[in-house]
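Q: How would the structure tokens look for this protein?
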Amino acid sequence: MSFRTVCTTLGASLELNFFRVCNPARPTTIQDWLQERINAVAASISDIRLLLRVKSLPKSSESRRVFITGGTGYIGSALIPILLERDHRVRVLVRPGSKAKLPAACEVVSGDALDANTYRQVIRPSDTFIHLVGVPHPSPAKGAQFRAVDMVSGREAISACAELGMRHFIYLSVAHPAPLRIMKDYIAVRAECEQMIQERHLNATIIRPWYVLGPGHRWPYLLLPFYKVCEWLPFTRAGALRLGLVTLEQLILALVQAVESPIQGTRVVGVPEIRSAALNLPREITRQTA
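A: Here is the predicted structure in token form.
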């Protein structure tokens, strides 16, 4: 049985549960409210653990000026404190009137991620641009939203950075190709944005996780035995590694590594590289300071 067949069968059986997790309803019972509070505490503990780990790592000798779109979401809110801890200067784009809570040490600028004309003039003097904008809680029913938000915001960011000659563009994409058709629109939009990056000749790092494990996103731990078997079998190994699970901590460290090691041309960071970022980050810093 091929990895495609296994994933298609498994995906069909888990699709309903997957999208119930990704699209939780507003809390309507005490149990729902308690679960939200538990998730919030778990997120705080996870953030503290990650911060302590980062504190133990050597710092880069060069501070970056980083501009972030989508910085108030699940990934961005975990990434920003880590970049600040590592002495990078962070400027975050937020919607006008947004009450998003961001660390006091970062600079907040207002603009619309769907229209680069509202923020192009405040990107500089940043040398690194991280694009994290995406429709929250993605599901197959949100194909139109992926094109209206993910595609448009990506196109605007890519265009603005190409015009400004941005030193390094970092794009959070998704692992592909993938056999599961349930997220084909989501994957297609990110593949198109990757193509735009290539066409505009940006110096870019494209990061391709599949599913990110973290607070409120832990049910796929149940799939780990399945993944281990598929990674062990020669005929399913490549697909299992490409579409493997990564933790929020691993993804944040991969983003930090990308920030601190700009590239000429295009670099694609897949699941295996994301998983090894915690090991590679100290080595890269040692190499830079040697």
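The radius of gyration is 19 Å.

The longest strand covers residues 89-94.

Upvote if useful.
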